Amino acid sequence: MNSSIKYDSIIVLGGGRNDKGLTPLSTIRLDKGWELFQQKRAPKIFALGGHYSTYMEDSKYYNDTGAELRRNYLLGKGNIKSEDIVLVADGRDTIYEAFASRKVAREMGIKNVLLVTSEKHTKRALYLFQRIFGKNIQVHGGKDTWAETGDVLLDAEEEAYFKLWKSVFDKLPDDIPDPESWEQWYQQNIENYRQHQKIHDEFHPPGSPESQAYTGRNKES
């Protein structure tokens, strides 16, 4: 792997939180982002996450943001400074992480980013980030940026989410405007989010292991 800086920033996608802190899904992704930062693939890392863990209506509110938790985790690993970490304290799912990151990237004049997420999440995440970031900011990702999380995510579940949101975003303009807020975006797409949760619940019915990305909730699935 070339150790020269190729990208303006590394963006590490969330992966969930709960009352104990970050999920293993989240920390494995951060470990991969930190590893790429140590290889000098980019001078900055985006740490993502607002006060809520998920898009679901029973998601819990936390006083500290997910971005703050992830910054502190990265700092705890060492050999990285606070000024190297860009806080994006918004986003309750992959889609809104992309909108929130795009806003910050535009403000910083960023032109290309390296996307870090789980191997089974990469197809959907890359599609959404590339669609939302548009033509002026290049989003890259692939096998060498995968965070290996094994069976934490399910292939069939991820493919169902991908097909759902691709059908939505394929109908949007090339230059997708910024939503006014998460709440506005959610209400405009509430039926799509209900379909997303239906897919989730089909793969994680009551009594079965919960998807780690949705553990920070006010009631159990």
Give the CATH superfamily: HUPs
Shape: globular
Number of helices: 7
Mean pLDDT across every amino acid position: 92
Please give the alpha-carbon distance between the first and last residues.
42 Å
What is the CATH third-level topology name? Rossmann fold
Structural class based on helices, strands and sheet pairing:
alpha/beta
The tally of strands reads 8
Rg from alpha-carbon coordinates = 16 Å
Beta-strand percentage range = 5-15%
CATH class: Alpha Beta
Q: Spell out the helices and strands N to C.
A: EEEHEHEHEHEEHHH
Instruction: Provide the domain count.
Output: 1
- Main pleated-sheet profile: 6 strands, parallel
At CATH level 2, the architecture is 3-Layer(aba) Sandwich
Concise synopsis of the structure shown:
Helix content is 41%, strand content 13%. With 221 residues, the chain is of the alpha/beta class.
Explained architecture:
This protein is α/β, with parallel strands linked by helices and 221 residues long. The protein has one domain: HUPs (Rossmann fold, 3-Layer(aba) Sandwich), CATH 3.40.50.620. It has 7 helices and 8 strands. The chain has helices at residues 24-38, 66-77, 94-108, 122-133, 155-169, 182-188, 190-203; strands spanning 9-12, 17-18, 21-22, 45-48, 85-88, 112-118, 138-140, 146-147. Strands 1, 4, 5, 6, 7 and 8 form a 6-stranded parallel β-sheet that branches. The chain has a two-stranded antiparallel sheet with strand order 2-3. Strand 6, helix 4 (122-133) and strand 7 form a beta-alpha-beta unit. The chain is globular and about 45 Å long. The relative contact order is 0.17.
